[in-house]
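Internal ticket #5521
Category: modeling
Description: The requester needs a full-assembly model to guide mutagenesis choices. All entity lines are attached below as received. Residue total reported by intake: 895.
Assigned to: D.W.
Attached entities:
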Amino acid sequence: MKLLRDIYLKRDTNKWSIFTLAIVVCIAIPILTIFFKLFSGPGETWSHLVKHVLADYILNSIWLVIGCSMLTLFFGVSSAWIVSRYEIPYRRFLEWMLILPLAIPSYITAYAYAGIFDYGGSLEILMKTIGISSFKLDVMNIFGLILILSLSLFPYIYVSARAIFLYQSGRLIEASKLLGATERSTFFKIVLPVARPAIVGGLILVLMEVLNDYGAAKYFGVSTFTTGIFRSWFSLGEPSTAVYLSAILLFVVFILIYLERLQRGAKSYYNSYKSNNVLKKKTVTTKRQLLLFFIVSIPIVFGFIIPLSQLIYWSFLTYKDVLSSSFFIIALQSLGISFLTAFFTVFTALMILYFPKWNRLKALKKVSRITILGYAIPGAVIAVGVMIPSLTLDKWFIKIAKDLWSIKIGLLINGTILVLLYAYVIRFLAVAYNPIEANQLKIGKSLSESSKLLGKGNIRTFFNIELPLLKSGAIGAFILVFVDVMKELPLTLILKPYHVNTLAVKAYEYASDELIMESALPSLCIIATGIVPIIILNRLILNEK
Amino acid sequence: MKYIYLLITLLIVSSSCKNDKNNQDSQEKTITKKEIVNVYTHRHYPADQELFANFENQTGIKVNVVNAKADELIQKMSEEGEQSPADVLITVDAGRLVRAKDKDLLQSIDSKKLNEIIPTNLKDENNQWFGLTKRARVIIYAKDRIKPEQLSTYENLTSPTWNKKVLIRSSGNIYNQSLLASIIANNGEESAKDWATKIVANMSRSPKGNDRDQVKAVVAGEGDIAVVNTYYIGKLLNSKNPEEVKAGNGVGVFFPNQEDRGTHINISGAGVAKYAPNKDNAIKFIEFLASAEAQEVFAKANYEYPVNKKVKPSELLQSWGSFKEDTLALSLLGKNNKKAVILFDEAGWK
């Protein structure tokens, strides 16, 4: 029996199994480091947390998850359907405007809204100039937080839903119409179920961001798991308790991912061929058009234009103090780091997707899944997970150098850009993985299998057949990671080398010194650098037609 | 990916080894030539950058800065251990310096200059850290509704007079933690818990926002009084936003507990890292920050109270008058920090 298993194992493994395993280990080390810390038990304040605050963390996090799911689904799916199905005024313009809220870090949107509704805020000034007596609206609570997070995160759902609506539903809608179904029942019974895997994929990204949010929740005074992690780690000085909380969060995310796989696994709607039948636009009455235009404008106005205007106003007040030559250097560094990270992350995601396919060890595919968990772990926790093993490695090098050549060397790896990039890759792998995987599912297996039947090897098939087809998914992934790194904060704060600074860090420094107005200009730069790639992303989706 | 990392690592290792082997002497020389000091700091005010540049110009010692929150810097230093490149740790609160000391991350230094300039209660008993600037946590009140005569002590804020009138930020904030830590040290744990519970009952809204937001909320009428740090009032009054200036003008500053222990103060301070590779430079650096010249900049640009007695506070701070400070040893703020966080949780202070 044992012999037989050995034979099977030998038959099923090849060099790709080893490569896969190597990558998986590399990515998993920091995650496992955190996991192993679990076994040292929670800190002494654990029972205190359970008694006094844990219920609050859980309840608030659940409300956030439910509220944000409903709102982002509503904003994302409705706008995606309207712009792909109906001919409305300025449709092409709206199509890419709808992605833009993603360019503003959600904590910045939160600061902007707090500033608008503040005493002496923009709203009050506006009311005064119009001559209406001002009213007070408090956004700094959990409802405000849900609304603001949803407004800044719904594009994740919009992007994935629109892609599916555009290429997948044309034929189906025609068929459904021919069979006499109404527009409404076609949408709910045909279009929506077909788009479900993609929408849920987008939703998972949204929820991971929601669970990971620190800046906005803290400013608004809402205690969530993530603010709890920071509190028990830093305020109580107990990393082990923080790790315990992270583990619970990780467990929840595990379940979310599992549920998504479960429902995707059962129903595979992806066409194996590329449909030439792009969804045809419907023309409706002018009145309806205006109504639809209005619906689509809401998330754009509130998720992008209003916070942006507030930031522009603040920048106008403070740019003289903020602008300096070092500011431009920081901007360049930010761009460089984001570019490098995006490249490495997409590269890693491709390897993780393809290497397991090139051998027959089924288990590998499942194992490789754990690599995308990084997105669910708070940046600060990943930073520590990366720091512990890299320091061990450094100490090892130092010892070797001392023993073999009797020379003294400093830290070779730690505090270099390498560690930062490594941590980013772990954190954002899921962001790159999901769009590429979706694209890959769309391509199907038949083309690559034909190629292999014709005697081409794995690598040739990949470069000649699959990569060209994957181009839009890969570029999309690149852009999403790029924008995310531009915005990333906690991980960068801990791991960034000397002399390296990013715009997000700069914005945070100002905000944490209660110089929120001064943080507007670096934030604007983050947004500006996010907009260009987002427009490219939109072009890509359109070109697929 | 792994191979790329491996390759890069190998490249770095091999190149550095080669250099070290062949040009060991020359390299050592170049290292000693280029004087540096590595500063881990929680402060990131523009004024600090100005000071660092001045230090570089005067001494030729290059200042490398890592900016992050004190907690994260401490975590970083303890992970780095003996290999840590940090020379100086700067925080904006005494509690964090005590934590760094407790984690054995700082070292005692012997500096005549610092001993002369810095009062005993504002530094560590073993000279492991030194206060550089002071900030007072005061009560501010709405000028149009409240008379300063109605105010007296932090303890008085729990009285029924202030029911639904008190504004204060969340307990996650270090300044609140240190305030409660000082109450624990002065009045005992039981009474501190009682204080926190009653303050929660008197809050006009659930804690949110930063210190500036509390001031604005007072002016907006959401509450009548708030507990904030002095320099934020200074910053509001000098804001680019006319509405913030208006908010700053709408409130008065009251220094509590003048009849007994004095107003709670905290420091922003610095210590030399235990494994500092450039210890001498680190000491020079801290001495520079305590010098009259540097303290002048702290006082002017950031509305903090200088620790150096030769330097006067800014005009604005002088206009609020002098006050009696709580002379509690600040190391106690650190010792009681964790207790304070736990009491906050028990009191339901978010």
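Resolution: model delivered.
Comment from assignee: The beta strands of chain B are 36-41, 62-67, 88-91, 106-107, 129-142, 166-167, 225-229, 251-254, 265-273, 305-306.
Ticket closed.
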